[in-house]
Amino acid sequence: MRIFDPHIHMTSRTTDDYERMYAAGVRALVEPAFWLGQPRTGVESFLDYFDALVGWEQFRAAQFGIRHHCTLALNPKEANDPRCRPVLTELPRYLDSDGVVAIGEIGYDSMTTAEDEVFAEQLQLAVEYDLPALVHSPHRDKLAGTRRSLDVVRESGIDPGRVVIDHLNEVTVRVVADAGAWMGFSIYPDTKMDPDRMVAILKEFGTDRILVNSAADWGRSDPLTTLRTGEAMLAAGFSTAEVEQVLWSNPVTFYGEQRLILDPLPGFEAGAAGTFEGNSVLRGGVPS
Ligand SMILES: [Zn+2]
């Protein structure tokens, strides 16, 4: 099974995860910029984080045979902090960097006026830079938040076919399907969507415009829930071609082949070979 995880926060994961993911068939992924779990206090913290997403993390993934891409944005939660708002003026200079494939995660957290403004402004950036947009649906008041997100998408003029609304479930999928946007699902080990619920949605909605991700991060999560979903699809009678569509071709189509780097990696030696700006994955030491 060939897997492209379209939403996973590898910065929060270990090299053991990279090894397990490679063994499971993961060959490419997208890491959206997001909230770190505690507030950043200024723009420079974002810039160092963005630099790591287009630099060190790409290198680290490659050490384990996986192509790393990212999406960049000021996330919805920190859109509310005036100290972080100037990130929006710095963002454009990153958008043409190698490996940047979309604007995201954007959208709503608490649905404030500041979030409205930052969401709309970043959708305009997506239009201007001809990038797709990854929109996170809020954890609280999910259906209202999803509807309101779709309104903002409509008002922005962006083609809904270039937008994914993520973290959907049985309650929110229909409005997104009807709006013509992509439907993103995060499969978690013990809350929200699980592989069997995902299979039920695939049976009802089909395999087009659907993205399945692990959204693994610093919280309870599992980078292999994509594989588990593929297995559950096969067990439920989906063909290998349908599994390949959901777990590989759909993310490639959504993010767009022109920005992705998908050619197979040349021979690599997991965790040992090479350096990035003089540092290796051996805790900064240089491999001998
Ligand atoms: Zn995320």
Alpha-carbon Rg, integer: 18 Å
Give the SSE string: EHEHHEHEHEHEHEHEHH
Approximately how much beta-strand content do the residues carry? 5-15%
- The residue ranges in which pLDDT falls below 50 over 5 or more consecutive positions are none
By DSSP, the count of extended strands is 8
What is the total number of structural domains?
Answer: 1
Helical content class: 25-40%
CATH 4th-level superfamily: Metal-dependent hydrolases
In short:
Helices cover 38% and strands 14% of the residues.
Descriptive overview:
The chain is 38% helix and 14% strand. The chain is of the alpha/beta class and 288 residues long. The chain has one domain: Alpha-Beta Barrel (TIM Barrel). An 8-stranded parallel β-sheet has the order 1-2-3-4-5-6-7-8, with helices on both faces. Strand 6, helix 7 (173-179) and strand 7 form a beta-alpha-beta unit. The longest helix is centred in the middle third of the chain and has 16 residues, at 113-128. The model has no long low-confidence stretch (mean pLDDT 94). Bound molecules: zinc ion.
